[in-house]
Every structure is written in C-alpha cells, then in structure tokens.
Write a structure and sequence with these properties.
Bound molecules: threonylcarbamoyladenylate, magnesium ion
Strand content: 15-25%
Helix content: 25-40%
C-alpha cells in the first residue's frame, strides 16, 4: 500500500470517510499529537489499529468526537463537576474516562467498564470528525513504544505502507498527549499528566488526585502507563540539572571515540554546555511543544542523545518530565565505565 499525505479539503475528507466506513484507518492531526483513527464501533477497524501499531491488546484506546457530538450516547456522566470540566477544557487536551454504555467495540475499552473520550482542539481534526459524525478510536499514530508523531512526516516514517491516508494538519501545537482524567469518582484522578494540569483542574473542581502509575505497583489504572514509551531509536541518557559537567565529559569522550553525541536541553542550561545541541525552549508550554519533535530529530542525527532534565517552574513540567524520563534512560555510571572509566 502506498501511503499518501493529504492536505485537509473536500477531496481528502471524502476519501477519508470512505476509508473509515470501509473499516480501514486514517491518520489525523490533533492539537497534541497525530492519531491513528478507525471506527470505534467496528471490531474489524479497531483490531487493525492494534495491529498497525503493534500495541499490546490490554491497553485501551481513546475515542475522539467532534465538539457538537452528544457523547452521552456513549458514556454516563456520573458527577456534576464533569460538566464544569467540559465547559472549561473541551475542546482541548483533556481526555475524560467515564462509565460506558457498551456502544463501542469491546476492543476499544479492553473489556473495562470505562471509556476514554476526547474532543480535540484542532480545526482540521474537527472538520474531519464533523464530516464523519462518528466516534473515532485513535491512539497516537506511532509504532508502539516509539516517540509520538507531531507532524504528518513523522507518521509517515512509522506507518508508511500500513495505512492509505495521513491527513496533514501541520505541526501539533501542544506536543504531548492529552491529560487522561478518571471522572467516575467523587474526586477526579489524573491517570496521565498533560497540558491540562492538576492545578488547572483543581481551580475548576476544587480537588484533583494524581496516580503515578509508574511508582504504583498495585492495580494499574491507566494501562498504557505501565509500558516503556516515547523512546527514540538512538541511545539515550538523561542527566540531572546538577550533573552538567558529567554530561559534558560524556559528550567529549563519546566524540573522541568517533561517536555522534547531541545534547537535548532547555535554553536556560544550553549556554553551559559545549557541542551540538537540540534546544527545547524556555517556557513549559514551549518545551512540551518541542519535545517529541526534537527527540525525533535527535534519533536521525545522533548516536547518543544526551538529555538534561527540565525545570521551568511551570505546572506543565510534570507532563514533560513524565515523557522525558520514559523516553531517555537515566544516567548510571556503570553503563559507561568503558567510556568514562572508574571513579
Ligand atoms: O492526546 C492524545 O490523547 C492522543 C491523541 C491522538 O488524541 N492519543 C493518545 O492515545 O495519546 P494513546 O492510545 O497513545 O494513549 C491513551 C491513554 C493510554 O495511557 C491508555 O491506557 C489510557 O489513555 N486509557 C484509554 N482508555 C482508558 C480507560 N478506559 N481507563 C483508563 N485509561 C485509559
Ligand atoms: Mg501513545
């Protein structure tokens, strides 16, 4: 199959509708990352999503709908605060996990009694969803475990030959996936952090809890969080902000061995490092917006991506560090004895 990248217009929308209604897949832009969309009510389509990504079958999908879609056809709204969240953040990078009514394929929910719903804040995506007027299941449009795509070309790199059409909506502004929020309880619980932060939710609802699924060995409430994620194809290493001299030493010694190391850091520390750099920006939002783009640039040019933890003081740092610490291996001296030598 020859994968086409198409601008969003009448022709590509018509073609995409045919593809979706034939239970095939279309990649679509959103304001966070690109999604790999298929008809949520179709077992056949949803099975193809899992297959195209190589995704574990116990990791449920988010269903995307346009802003005028009545999603109470799909889920129960159990608490009044949910309407306040909808008013404040939808459309936007917030996914709500609610009890479902059994209207979509069981493969979407992996047999859970809840369904994740999202209304993307992206004009082209809204046009696509409105044109279809159907619930679209869509994980990020990358091969499982790889960095999520934020341009149509990134999707092409991962899924070329596996899908017919990628709708091109430009570079995603948000840059990291939506906040996943369980709203089935009295107090909402963040299952995956993102650009809608705990503090933003607290300001609307009054309270918000956060489950760090990586630290929690009990029941994993957002199954996706237990897997390795977001990893670029080159070697990666993540340093603390107070380890810059060590990061520099590793860079210099790798270079001396004929390797290609590249730093990835925010603009505040970049002037303290000497060598090739991928700069992420200054503010939390800017860094989130650049993170996957730079990771994917890094894997093309570097043998070793040497990343420095970020700390802007912004509420968004939680979401960015959650991704960065899963994408890059924390520095351990024993991994680099042959390059750095014993202490
Ligand atoms: O921004 C986004 O959310 C992007 C764009 C394409 O919309 N989508 C995305 O999908 O990141 P995906 O499949 O890569 O991540 C979905 C996350 C996973 O961590 C999954 O475990 C969680 O949402 N999830 C989905 N349904 C759930 C449910 N019923 N209960 C708990 N977690 C759920
Ligand atoms: Mg994903």
């Amino acid at each position: 199959m020859n994968t086409k990248i198409l601008k969003i217009n009448d022709n590509s929308l018509k073609l995409s509708k045919n593809i979706i209604e034939s239970n095939e897949l279309v990649a679509m832009p959103t304001e966070t990352v690109y999604g790999l969309g298929g008809l949520a009510t179709s077992d056949v389509a949803v099975e193809k999503i899992f297959k195209a990504k190589g995704r574990p079958s116990d990791n449920p999908l988010i269903v995307h709908v346009h802003k005028d879609y009545d999603f109470t056809k799909l889920v129960y709204v159990d608490h009044d605060y949910v309407y306040d969240l909808i008013n404040a953040f939808m459309p936007g990078p917030l996914t709500l996990v609610m009890r479902h009514k059994g209207a979509v394929s069981k493969l979407v929910t992996c047999n859970l009694d809840t369904l994740a719903i999202r209304v993307p804040d992206h004009e082209g995506c809204q046009e696509f969803l409105k044109y279809l007027d159907l619930p679209i299941a869509a994980p990020s449009a990358n091969v499982s475990k790889h960095t999520s795509p934020v341009t149509a070309e990134h999707v092409y790199d991962d899924l070329n030959g596996k899908i017919e059409v990628i709708l091109d909506g430009g570079k995603c502004k948000g840059g990291i996936e939506s906040t996943v929020l369980d709203v089935t309880k009295q107090v909402p619980v963040i299952l995956r952090s993102g650009l809608v932060t705990a503090e933003m939710i607290k300001r609307v609802v009054g309270a918000c809890e956060y489950v760090d699924n990586m630290a929690d060995s009990e029941v994993v409430r957002s199954p996706g969080m237990k897997y390795v994620h977001y990893t670029p194809k080159c070697n990666t290493v993540l340093f603390e902000r107070n380890e810059l001299p060590l990061a520099q030493e590793l860079y210099d010694k790798l270079l001396a061995k004929g390797k290609v190391p590249v730093f990835m850091c925010d603009d505040k520390v970049s002037h303290k490092l000497c060598g090739e750099k991928l700069q992420l920006g200054v503010s939390g939002e800017e860094i989130a917006s650049n993170l996957y783009y730079k990771l994917l640039e890094g894997e093309k040019i570097a043998d070793y991506l040497i990343a420095i933890k970020i700390n802007t003081g912004s509420e968004v740092d939680v979401g960015v560090m959650n991704r960065l610490s899963k994408a890059c291996k924390p520095f351990k001296r024993e991994d680099y004895i042959d390059i750095l030598g014993e202490l």
